[in-house]
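Weekly sync notes, structure subgroup
Attendees: PM, AL, DS (notes)

Item 1: joint prediction request from the bench team. They want all two components modeled as one assembly rather than separately. Inputs as received:
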Amino acid sequence: MATIDVSKPILDLNEKLAAANRERFDEKGVFVLDLMASPGAGKTSTILATIAALRDRYGIAVIEGDIASKVDAEKVKAHGIPAVQINTGGACHLESDMIGRAVAALDLDALDLIIIENVGNLVCPTEFYLGEHAKVMILSVPEGHDKPYKYPAIFQISEAVILNKVDTLSVFDFDVEEFEGVVRSLNPQSPIFHIAATKGDGVGAWAEWLAERIETVRIAAGKSPK
Amino acid sequence: MHEMGITQGILDASFEAAEAAGAKRIIDIRISVGELTEVVDFALQFAFEALTPGTLAEGATLTVNHVSARSHCNACGEDYEHDRFQMVCPRCDGFDVSLLQGRELQIDSIETEDDVEDDVPSPETAQE
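Output from the run, pasted for the record:
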C-alpha cells in the first residue's frame, strides 16, 4: 500500500484553460464579464441595456451560454453586436474550453468588452473559472429577497450584485433592506445596483462601474483611455 | 448536478498519479472541499459510485476533508472562522475582509495498492 501525494486543484484542466483564456484577454485589453443568474432574471435584457449604455464608447461582443437554442444570440445580433451562441447540450454551466472555442470566432482586436451570459443557474457556474475578469450576478425582484440565504456561494463570489426589475417592487413582497443586509454579510465589498433593465432605469451607475473596470484592463494592455 | 464533472476531474487526476507511480489499484482518494463551495457530498459520492466501475478506482472510497471558512479583517487584523452566511468581521464589524480559506476544491492524495491477487504478470516479468 502506498500513499501518493497529488495536491492538485480538482478542476485543474478547466483552470489551466481559463488561465490561457485570461492571458489572451489581457494581452488584447479586452475586459471579460461572466454574468450569472437564474432563468428569467433578465440576463439578456441587462446585457442589451448595458450594450445601449456603452456601445458608443467600446467595442462589445456577447457569448451566450444556453442548454439549447440560439434565441439569445439572435436577440443580441439584432442590435448589430457580434454574438456567439454556445449550446451546452444539457450541462448546467459553461467551462473554459467552451469559452476558448467561442472566443476564436471573435475579432479581439476590435473589442474592449466581452459579456458572457452563463447558463441560467444559481449553483453550478460558481465553481468554474472561465478566465473572466469579474463574475457578476443578477437577482430579480420576483425571485424573492430570501435567495442569498439559499444560494450563498453565488453572492459571495460576485464582484457586483445587480437587483433587476426594481420597477415591480410595489407588487412583490421583496424586502430590499433585508436583501441588502444579507448580501452585505455574505460579501462585504460588492456594490449592489438597482436596475429595471427593460426601461433603462439605474443602468447608468452599473455601466459606469463596468467602464471603470474596462479602462483598467485597456490601459494595462497599452490602449489609450476612452 | 455539476458534481459529475467534478468527480470526473478527481478521477482523471487520480488515474494520472496512479499510472505515473505504476500502481495497479486505487483504494482511497482524499479530497478537500471548502465549506463555501456549492459541492454536495451526497452528489459527489453518487457520481463516484457511477463513474468508478471498470476503472483503477473500482471499489475505492472517496474521503472528503471539509475545510472551514476563515477570513482576515484588513481593518483590525483579526483572523476568524465563520459560516457560509456571515463574512463580516465579528470584532469590528468591518467590511474590508479577505477570505483565507473555504473555497478549496482540491485532490490531496490517493492510497494505492501494488499487489492484487489476480495480478497479471507485466511483460517484463514474464520475460525473466
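Discussion: The two ends of chain A are 62 Å apart (CA to CA).
Action: AL to compare against the crosslinking data before next sync.
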